[in-house]
Design brief:
This protein is mainly α. Helices cover 68% and strands 0% of the residues. α9 packs antiparallel against α10.
Length: 207
């Protein structure tokens, strides 16, 4: 009888996920090869085998975070592309704000990822090339910036490339705010309301 159990994740993936948890729980200063080995419950030296330097560990983390965030982004754009626009402008804005809020929710469902990402961008990578992988300036987001205006136009919004970029940056900003204030319900902003207000400010296409 053939074993149908799923294959275990690749070792690099296990180590990257462990490193993300270390940063999320204990901060960047706690990130060492040995700490990642312990977190992953692997023999000492496992992390060094795959990532011999601290920079290599950070590259491994950045690749893992980018992979998951891009998966969420592709799902978001797919939902936009497959949603039939509502008949009125206000209903369409509500649709868009809801879909965008769902995207933010998907990101927030991985709090370790978000805390690790922002810790890296703010505390370590501000002047490092890796910041381009994790920040809003990531070249990985170039396609998203290009696609956003096209999808917005389907919903009757005359979005320029700058509008699309602003929307993506705003989405990142509200995700950051919700991550920072996760333990303070009274400081939690209304993601859907903020996004809807921005969308209302954009020009509408001529009928």
């Amino acid at each position: 009888m053939q074993d149908s159990s799923p294959a275990p994740p690749p070792r690099v993936q296990v180590l990257a996920d462990a490193a993300i948890r270390v940063i999320s729980r204990d901060g960047l200063r706690a990130l060492t090869h040995r700490a990642v080995d312990r977190e992953a419950a692997l023999p000492q030296g496992s992390t060094s085998y795959y990532a011999s330097t601290r920079l290599a560990v950070l590259e491994m983390i950045a690749a893992r975070l980018a992979e998951r965030s891009l998966g969420d982004l592709h799902a978001y754009f797919s939902a936009l592309a497959n949603t039939t626009p509502a008949p009125t402008r206000e209903e369409r804005i509500s649709q868009l704000a809801g879909l965008m809020a769902d995207f933010v929710g998907a990101l927030l469902a991985r709090p370790d990822d978000m805390r690790a990402r922002y810790a890296l961008v703010m505390d370590y990578l501000a002047a490092d090339p890796l910041s381009g992988v994790l920040s809003s300036e990531s070249p990985l987001l170039a396609d998203a910036y290009a696609e956003a205006p096209k999808l917005l136009r389907r919903f009757g919004i005359d979005a320029s490339p700058q509008h699309g970029r602003d929307l993506m940056l705003l989405t990142d900003a509200v995700t950051f705010s919700r991550t920072v204030h996760a333990a303070s319900p009274h400081l939690q902003l209304d993601v859907r309301g903020v996004l809807a207000a921005f969308l209302r400010s954009l020009p509408r296409l001529q009928d």
